[in-house]
Amino acid sequence: MTLASLLPFGFVELRAVYRDGYADTRSLEFYERDRVQRLL
């Protein structure tokens, strides 16, 4: 169950790492994005 709930967020984060870089993905601004907030 935990894997299924974390899976969509993991894909969003992985895509952001490739597109924007690791440092940007780990910043607080990443977690404030609309798409991320809907998943959290």
Class per helix and strand makeup: mainly alpha
Number of domains: 1
Our estimate of the beta-strand percent is under 5%
Characterize the main sheet: none
Features:
40 residues; mainly alpha; 85% helix
Question: Which SSEs are present, and which pair or pack?
Answer:
Layout: H1 2-20, H2 22-26, H3 28-31, H4 34-39
Give an overview of the whole structure.
The chain has one domain (2-39). Helices cover 85% and strands 0% of the residues. The protein has helices at residues 2-20, 22-26, 28-31, 34-39. 0% of the residues are buried.
Task: Produce a short descriptive summary.
The chain is mainly alpha-helical. 85% of the residues lie in helices and 0% in strands.
